[in-house]
Amino acid sequence: MRITFLGTGSAMPTGERFQTGILVQEDGRTLLIDCGAGVLQRLQQSGIGYENVSTVLLTHHHLDHVADLLPLMKARWLAGEDHLEIVGPQGTKALVDDLLSVYEYMQDKLEVQVREVVPGEFTVAGFDVSAYETRHSVPCLAYRFGDLFTFSADSEAFAGLANFAEGSAIFAHDCSFPDDVDVSNHPTPDALGRELAGRELGRVYLTHLYPHTDGHHDEMLESIAAHYDGDVRFAEDLQTVSVE
User: Fold this and answer.
1) pLDDT tens per residue, range 228-242
2) Is 64 a catalytic residue?
3) Of 213, 195, 183, 104, the residue nearest 157 (C-alpha)
4) Is 108 helix (H, G, I), strand (E, B) or coil?
5) Angle CA(160)–CA(242)–CA(156) in degrees, nearest 5?
6) Which end of the chain is more exposed for a tag (fewer CB within 10 A), N or C?
7) What is the DSSP string of 59-82?
8) Are the C-beta atoms of 4 and 20 separated by less than 8 Å?
9) Residue 218 pLDDT more than 90?
10) Catalytic, out of 27, 34, 64, 231
11) How far is the C-alpha of 134 from the C-alpha of 154, rounded, in Å?
12) Closest among 153, 171, 179, 147 to 230, alpha carbons compared
């Protein structure tokens, strides 16, 4: 499996990090998780291209996770593609309908299939996926792909999510702010380290990084390491990780 971080930033982009998007590929299958602002550009820079993304799996509906969804539809239409499948938590159909209602000329350009999922197991784009509800300000789902990859989506750090991810070769987790920022709905490094303590994980990648984290990477890693002694790294835009 190849995991490509297209966007590792947040609702406040730095210019170096675009908003959330992760590409998962295995045995000819391709799935885009989230589609924040800049993801369409990153798809082209990655060499994969929007023509090869026919399924999008949304974690939740905040703007920094869906902003490039309609531009993706238009780009695929202009490229001669004829369909797009969008899968996400409850409310995804209403979101897509509302987006298309703003730009009516796009309504019949693609065959758009929308499917809503709940916590549990399902199949999307040929991948077997498990979903788990996170702790965020809106309904949000973390996704696990067997023992290879788990994505926390946006969430506070808590034991249930750490349990959900345990045994994963790669765990990408929200770590939006350094410890000196008082925040809810996202974790700080200290909180994340405490919840990861004692877990068996191959490698943890920190993502969904606000500008507040710039210049604080070393201290953030030290804060996590005070509780969790595993391999923790910062994800970067266009970074690809391969795992078997």
Assistant:
1) 999 999 999 999 999
2) yes
3) 195
4) coil
5) 25
6) C
7) S---HHHHTTHHHHHHHHHHTT--
8) no
9) yes
10) 64
11) 7
12) 171
